[in-house]
Amino acid sequence: GGKPLEPGAVCPNGGRLRPDIVWFGEMVPMMEVAAEVASEADLLLVVGTSLVVYPAASLVNYIPRHAEIYVIDPNRPEAFFSSKVTYITETAAKGLPKLVNQLLTNF
């Protein structure tokens, strides 16, 4: 990990740098690889999303039946219903530390 990317940062050649994320409306790179990784997961964390932006939201469909799913979002996403989901209706900043402590305690 390098230092955080500042808004408007440019590379030595003058080209604008961007964070390693997918913006709305962009294709998800390596979606097939992500689906394969998801299909082997024991645990899925969904953090801060409504689960309505596709194709990334479709990754939940690849999770094995045995996998645990945790959704952390202050607004419970209505797009995702499953009996195997544990909802943590908090911000990521509050919900993630709580979940980590819970998982470490049960480990």
| Mean pLDDT across all amino acids | 83
Radius of gyration: 16 Å
What proportion strand?
5-15%
Specify the biggest β-sheet: 3 strands, parallel
Shape: globular
Characterise this structure:
The protein has 107 residues and is of the alpha/beta class. It is 21% helix and 13% strand. The protein has two helices and three strands, in the order αβββα. The protein has a three-stranded parallel sheet, covered by helices on one side. The longest helix has 15 residues, at 92-106. The model has no long low-confidence stretch (mean pLDDT 83).
Keywords:
107 residues, alpha/beta, three-stranded parallel β-sheet, 2 helices, 21% helix, 13% strand
List the helices and strands and how they pair.
Blueprint: H1 31-38, E1 43-47, E2 68-72, E3 85-88, H2 92-106
Parallel strand pairs: 1-2, 2-3
Summarize the structure.
The chain is of the alpha/beta class and 107 residues long.
